[in-house]
Structures are given as structure tokens and as C-alpha cells.
Amino acid sequence: MTLPWSTATGSLDLTTLGRLYRNGSLTPSAVVDAVYDRIAARGDDHVWIHLAPRDSLLAQAAKLEQAGPTEDPLWGIPFSVKDCNDVPGMPTTNALPQMAYVPETTGQSMQRLLDSGALCLGKVNMDQFGIGLVGVRTPYGACSSVFHEDFISGGSSSGSGVSVGAGLVSFSVANDAAGSGRVPAAFNNIVGLKPTPGLISNSAVSGGGSLKSAETMTVFALTVEDAVTVGKRMAGYDPAYEFSKPEADQVDLVVGPIPPRFRFGVPAGAALRFFGDVEAAKLFDTAIARLEAMGGTRVEVDFTPFEETQKLLYGGPFIAERAIAMDSVVEKYRDVIHPVTLQILETSSDYSAKDVFAAMHRVAALKRDTRAAWTDIDVLLVPTTPTIYRKDEILADPIRLNAQLGIYTNFVNLMGLCGVAVPNGFRPDGLPQGVTFLAPTWQDAKAASYAAAFQKRTGLTLGATGNSLPD
Description:
Layout: H1 14-22, H2 28-42, E1 48-51, H3 54-67, E2 78-82, H4 108-115, E3 119-124, E4 144-145, E5 148-152, H5 158-165, E6 171-176, H6 183-188, E7 191-194, E8 216-221, H7 224-234, E9 262-267, H8 278-293, E10 296-301, H9 304-315, H10 321-333, H11 339-345, H12 353-376, E11 379-383, H13 391-396, H14 398-405, H15 411-414, E12 418-426, E13 432-439, H16 444-458
Parallel strand pairs: 2-3, 2-6, 9-10, 9-11
Antiparallel strand pairs: 1-3, 4-5, 6-8, 7-8, 7-12, 11-13, 12-13
């Protein structure tokens, strides 16, 4: 017998809501009321930069109900949006309130969600301008991991990760240049879908993004299947955006069965680092054992090319790309930009055109050096992060610790890879650790399929909700 859906704790996964909507036992209006009550119960958690009025969302839900439920899996589904993405009628601030504006339109990927009948509750917190993996570089107050107030939520998509992990929305639309669509997934026990750059158009991003050659829109959700459903709706070639790729229309982003025997790569030797977090290391060993029990063969991969690439993203001239969009912003708002963000942005003019081309050539060579590894493995498994830090640790050492968090994420977009971050387990202190499945360009369905199979094997509940994976 199926228990009634609880307004306080009922799961917001797409399978559960879709089933209840279509059998008539739940309505979008009831879900909207429930999630606003949940948001109120959490108090000032620093998640929301702009929360739409409840009456506005109830009116949208009522309009959907008048037309009746559709077969669209996003019909009546509540979601949040990282505040560097445009939603018509909602302010975009990029976590700098002084430069807020209210867009009248948005880009292809966001509009497709709205047209599907998904309900946008509002805009959520982030590291200012999307620079950071920590979630504390914001004037709106720092979010926390849903599992402990003293620990970071991850960034830059901090509010996105917490809003999903806390059971306030079904999914969140975010962005990822260095790991922002994956790190908050690890710290909040949820899924982060980071597609191949160019699969989902960035035309909905404020200004089209500030790292256009590498960044991508991403999806946080409770399950891999949910993230894929949302990502598939957003994906596709967008002729209005210069970095969208025609190949996007040929990618069938679906979750399928994985083979009974497969080979998965892991970083070899000293490249597998956890910076003293013994329990995180144990959890990664558990992930390897789980994959082996699923039919996988572990293959140690020379991580040197990936390691060198990740250092180039912020420790090299690629930071100069941000200067195109950000130099005028820095000039105008210098006195109110977060000091750590300003420190990073001020390095963007330290490089010459020759430096940039040399770095581009080096990344091309490093990508070449990884091709042999990809022919020997089906997917590459990495820890999403080596550890998790307390807020006070990050505030005391913001640049170095942020860099350490990105050792398994920074290289992915520069190399054109795709990935799905999934929960892996908990340390004895109750804090989560995640892993990420990586695959080559356009092999998004493969990464998602392995991630989905892995998530099912963990037996973990969804975020901090206590709800199980749906049948």
C-alpha cells in the first residue's frame, strides 16, 4: 500500500510527483504550498536570493491544473535557478546586488523548461560571478551543507545544491566551469549532471557566461534519471549562441543498461589525494569495490595530463577569458566586489596573447596524451572532491583550499569531457562524499548510465530528505 505523500517530507523526485499527479492524488498547487512551507521552516538558510511570491506560483499551478496534467515529466515540477541565469521577470544579480537587472526574456534551454510546465520558485545563492567551489564568496550569506551548519555547501552553485538536497525543489539549473555543477552535489548527497560543453546552450546565462569557451549549464537533481530528464529537455543546438554545437542534436541523452563486464579507470599512484581525509579515502575504496562487484575491472590511469590541465584553469592564462566580460564590471564595482573574487579577477590581465595560445596548445597536447587511456576504459571514476572543509577553514585560507577542492574537477571542461556526480556514502561524522563518472566528448549517455547504476547500488537516500530512490 502506498502511503500518502507528506507535505513536510514527501519526495520531490520526478517519478513520485509524476505518478501522483497523474493518478489524481496530488496537485501542483499542493506541492507549491508544501515547498513554501518547507522553505519557511528552514528559516534564513541563505539559499534564496529571490523567492517568487507564493501567490504567483499558486496562480501558475492553478493554470496548469485547469488544462489538466500532461505526459510531460516536467509538468508541475518545482525548480530553482542559480542567480547567474536569466528567468523572465526575476532579478539576476550574479551575487552582486548592485548590478541587478530584470530580464524580459531568457535563452533556449531555460525557456524549454518553462514551456514544459515546470514551476520556477526563484533564484538561489552562488559564489559571486560563479568564481569559486566553496559557496562562501557571496554578500547574501554563506549556505551550509544540508548535513552540518559549520561545513560549506560547495560552490559556486551553493543555493542550487542545498535547495535540492534539503527537499525544497525537484531540481536546480546551475552552471559549471571548474566544478560548480559537481562539488555541491558531493556536499549535499545529490546528483550533478555536467554535460559536454556545447550540449546545452548558455544563451540563458547572464551575458552568455564569462568563460564561454569552457563553461556549461548543469542540472542538480535527486536521481540520475531526473537529472537526465531535465538535461535532455534543455539540450540541443541553439543557433542564437555562438558556442552551441550542432552535434548537440545528435546526442541521445538517456539512461540505459550497462554491460555485465566493463573497465573503469581510477587515478594511479600519488595522484589519488585526499589531503589527510582518511575516511574519504576509505569511501573511495568502497566505490571501487562496489563497481568491481557490479562487473567492473579497475584500471589505473596515468593522471598526469589531467592533473596538469586542472592547474591551468585558474593557475594559468585561461583566467584571462573572464576579463572580456569582467573588466568593465571590476572597474565599476571594485569597492563592493567580494575581496577574494576581486583578487582572482585582478590576475586576469597578467597574461599575454602568447601565453594564452601556449596554454591552448598545451591543453591540446594533454588531451592527445589521454586518448590511449580512453581506448582502454569505459569510464573514468574520480572522487568528486578530495574532502570537505568547514566554513572557517575556507575563510582562513580561501585560495589554497579552493584549489585543492578542484583537483578532480578543474580539467573536465577544458578537455571537453562530460560527467555525472553521484553520492557515494558518508564519513563517520555524517558528512557526505561523492564520486564522478567521466566520459569523452558527446558520451554523456554513457556517463549517466554508469552513474545511475552506481546510485542504485549505494542504497543511499536522497539528499537529506530520508526518501529512498523511487521504484
